[in-house]
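Q: Lipoprotein, please. Structure only.
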Amino acid sequence: MIKNIGILLINLFIASLLLFSVTACHHRQDPQQIRLGTISGPETELMQIAKQVALRNSGLRINIIEFSDYSLPNIALNEGSLDANMFQHQRFLENEIHNRGYHLVAIAKLFVYPMGIYSHKIQQLKELKSHAIVAIPNDPSNEARALLLMSKAGLITLNTGKGSLITPRDIVQNPKQLVIKELDAAQLARALADVDLAVINTNYAVLAHLYTQQNALFAEDKNSSYANLLVVNTKDQNNPKFINLIKAIHSKEVLAAAERLFHGEAIPSWK
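A: Structure for Lipoprotein:
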């Protein structure tokens, strides 16, 4: 009886070692596969085209993992659940690294998606009344981006001494005494019924059929510095498999799909 128990324990120990070995192998990076994090919406559809191009041209398999919250793709990438993500611009990435200590780095520029100021209540900014409510993104980098756009539109004046860390507290002149309402970026388009203006990222605006060239009262120009980035863990930045991913995203097929999906709102920053 004791002998049988001993044999059983040995077998269990061997099985656990095998399981650990298989699990460890599973977590090693596959040289021909990339787990790519995106934000749900047209950009994810765009990556479906890049996925086809990468497989056809280099045999690279892309597993697209969608998120609905801006904070999650960097958490997943830093923890190793993703190999790369593409949803953020440089200022957003810098803010995340500064605040959370992530070991992440951008390895390629992708598309610029201009931010716009939209309204369902007025046709021109000069119609805006005193004490109007303006909704802006609540994440630090896009909040600063929205405030800078409002300043450029002549709605407010900012103390820009803090650089990219501008908040509503840095408004030094607010002639119409606008009320700033900070919301999650994904909620801004839906909030248009309840506010006078909303400053919206293009990836969310197009989901509501809002386009800077057709619907925005004011928008960033095509020379915006807010290009989206392909971001990886710093330890993986020299991995050659990302070269084929970049080639696929920069391909003519993806450019054509971007024009169709974003109605001219996606501007290739690498050209």
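A: Brief note, in case it's useful. The two ends are 75 Å apart (CA to CA).
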